[in-house]
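haha ok so turns out i had the wrong file open the whole time. this is the CORRECT one, sorry everyone. sequence first:
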Amino acid sequence: MKTPSNRKGLIGLATLAGLIILWFLLTSVTGWVSGGRFPSPAEFWMSLKQISGRGYAGATLASHALHSLKLVAMGFVVAVLTGVPLGLWMGWSRRAEAFINPVFLIIRPIPPLAWIPLAILWLGLGDAAKIMVIWFSAFVPSVINAFTGVRNIERPVLEAARMLGTPRWRMVREVILPAASPMIFTGLRLSLQASWTTLVAAELVGALMGVGFVLNMAQQDIYPGMILVGMITVGLLGWATTLLLTRAERRALAWNVAARD
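then structure:
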């Protein structure tokens, strides 16, 4: 029996309220956690008011968040436009897999953050270097899941389409893409999460704006309240963009959602 959505929402709100109460008790009431290690709710609120009004690290919270959102969107979109077609091609063509997969297997284990020095060397300290690092972090899950989606298609389906004389372009559009779409969207969600994780690390080096830059400046200023503001901002942005992607998936794959439900 499935839990109704309103009940799950109430459980989530109760959990969040419990964590806030525990946070208040540990920092403001008992003092078991000092402000130098973790901010109290009052310190967090004052930091939020500061960056939302006067600003911090050269801009307001809205400006920092929009800048980070722009970088993630650009890196993510480029990764989807390059990774998904490559994964589909490798899954569809054994010859393409034979040529590309050895190279992909070499670069796949390289952590995205390891590309930061090379990205800075190639593209400087501007946004282009950060977009490149975000692109790589999102590119790998896109390729893997698109490839897996094609390879998981049942062979009788492909053989039936071939027997009917389906042209190649129509085979891709009407057979390959619909069958592989659930795995593709799984890869997109993983890519989006990886994009946000990598963005913060990329903005710690050579950035002049963005949520990662706020975290870096707050760490240098020993400002726990502002650090927590930056962390929660990243979490909320990641949650909101993932929610949008989930809604897009539900609309694009209504047949698959109905089958699961």
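The radius of gyration is 22 Å.
again sry for the mixup
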